[in-house]
Amino acid sequence: MLKFIVKKLLEIVPVLLIISFIVFTLVFVAGDPVALMLPDDATQEDINNLREAMGLNDPFIVQYGNYMLGVLQGDFGDSFRYNTAALPLVLERLPATLELAAASMVIAILIAIPFGIWSATKRNTILDLFVTGTSVVAKAMPNFWLGIMLILIFSVTLGMLPVSGHGTWQHLILPAITLGTGIGAEMTRLVRSSMVDILNQEYVRTAKSKGINRFFVVYKHAFRNSLIPVITITALQISTLVGGALITETVFSWPGLGQLLIQAVNTRDMAIVQASVFVIAILVIVMNLIADMLYRVLDPRIKY
Amino acid sequence: MSEQITTVEKEIPYTQVKKQSGAGKILKSLLRSKTGLVGFIIVFIVAFIAIFAPWLAPFDPGAMDVTKILKPPIWIDGSDPAHILGTDNLGRDILSRIIYGSRVSLLVGISAVALAGIIGLIVGLVAGFYGGIVDMILMRLVDSFLAIPNILFALVFLAVFGASVPTLIIVIGVTNWVAYARIVRSEALSIKEREFVKAARSIGVRNPLIIIRHILPNVISSFIVISTLSVASTIILEASLSFLGLGIQPPTISWGGILSDGRDYLATSWWLATLPGLAITITVLGIIFLGDWLRDILDPRSQGRG
Fold first, then answer.
1. Domain of B191: which CATH number?
2. Is the Cβ–Cβ distance between B170 and B241 less than 8 Å?
């Protein structure tokens, strides 16, 4: 297991290098930020001095090298909007995003597992049709629209939950449902098809024919095995989850990374954009690694 | 009996017979699959609306009328019969705006998918066929793109290059090729081990020709399936970016943009944010149905699953 983790961690290095290179190149192409940083009445000399001081006159490779040296020390440069280092600003927003992502994942699992199993065991009934139908529609809905519709129903019309903000569990409900629904729909489809495959297997039939309680057959024999493909593909959804969080945060004014990032994109605050990309990439990779380890635990047949 | 067959073969060349029966089979299968048919009809209608928008829209989608602001749809009291789906905060006709919005959605959806598909197809074929160090480097690139949500990459590109329809197409195309590359690569990996590829190689056919003549035709059906389903996710991505104010910019009309405008009037005029979202959902649903049906007929391995 340890060997496997070390190997996976080593694989992260080239991935992060490539990401940093792409993002740095893009920012380099975008032109220098000096014009945005100085007051309007700055003279050409001021601009030149600042460019020289920031190393913007160096060749691309030198700039990239300096940038990477900074990154290794956790220095992504200063945000010119907040006038402080970018990384702490990003990290400060991270817990709120993680909170939202975790709550959404819980909701997705709470939807997917019971409904997926239920519709697999009652294949081609009205219930099954309802579950598969609903999950396709849920997948087709843009999550920001679902969020707005939930606000319209539960906040504006019924007045049950707050429109936006962060702090209490009431604030968490609507954003978590918004983000969790799409992923839950995808997972439901997966759990269902995986369960259908497994319920048709010999050992399940044997268990049934031995007269074992139906509940035990479904949950003890079939369910655990059906989880393996579900976890594999759910790991691929992590990127979607984080991407969705960026949008959901904007809809609900959730004070997470997404809100900060979108503001930064609007104001072209590239230090924050770069730091966010890095933090999100590491987050996605680490979550994938956890999923990888989890299905190795579930399926002892997989060798490291 | 044998005479009859020969006469048929004389009258219609063999290839033509095969083509006709293929098209007939597809049509039959479409009529048999309820969701496939529904998907096809939805996609057909949306495409029709997008193409003929200037003739179908009852009003100029940008025309403001301050005397008729925030009118509800006709089935609600206080509506204006001329504006079937009501008007927005500037008195613009919602129906006309939704009709015109379909253009951007389909244009960006289809062009971005075409671009992503071409990049992914090339990367996948090259990585899968040549293997070795080329494969390793390309797959590390794929991993890097996978570690970052599409929308995040798109945001970085848009921050750098600014928003416009062409940039948006390029941005989405460049960020979405990974899915194609992975699938095409894995198909190419298995196909290149098959007998007919080995046979082609043994008689000295050059590699690029093998890729084009022997590998490409065999990966094309899974390629079509992912492309179709990708149009759906691309439309959602474009709408999301436009909703965030970073995608399509006014005065160009997009569903995401109309939705974003409507968000400020949620308490008083719910239809502004509701209707464009409904348009997106129905369109995406149609494409998903069509894609699922295509997968069933093109990919025999997926049959009988779920």
1. 1.10.3720.10
2. no
Q: What is the pLDDT of residues A242-284, one digit of tens each?
A: 889 989 998 888 898 988 888 888 888 888 888 888 888 888 8
Tell me the three state secondary structure of residue B87.
Answer: strand
- Could you say which of A18, A136, A244 has the minimum Cβ distance to residue B144? A18
Q: What's the token pair of residue A17?
A: 């290098």
pLDDT in tens, A146-166: 999 999 998 888 888 887 777
Report the gap between the CA of A266 and the closest CA in chain B (Å). Answer: 7
Handedness of CA B273, B279, B282, B288 (dihedral sign): negative
Residue B294 in any domain: the answer is: yes
Residue B281 near residue A134, CB atoms below 8 Å? no
What's the rounded Cα separation, in Å, for the pair B258 and B260?
Answer: 5
d(CA A258, CA A208): 49
Residue ranges of B 87-106 with Cβ closer than 8 A to chain A: none
Instruction: Mark yes or no for CB contact A273/B155 under 8 Å.
Output: yes
**What is this structure's pTM?**
0.84
Tokens 């609306």 identify what position? B49
Domain-embedded: residue B240: yes
Contact residues on chain B for A244, CB-CB shorter than 8 A: 149
Greatest Cα pair distance, chain B, in angstroms, is 79
Structural domain for B102, as ranges: 46-52+95-305
Residue B188 lies in a domain: yes
Query: What is the amino acid identity at position A149?
Result: M
Residue A273: both structure tokens together: 């954009």
Which residues, including other chains, have CB under 8 Å from residue A54's CB and lie 6 or more apart? Answer: A32, A34
- Is residue B17 assigned to a domain? no
Quickly list DSSP for A203-244: HHHHHHHTT--HHHIIIIIIIHHHHHHHHHHHHHHHHHHHHH
* Number of domains composing chain B: 1
Indicate the residue of A22, A136, A142 with minimum beta-carbon distance to B288.
Answer: A136
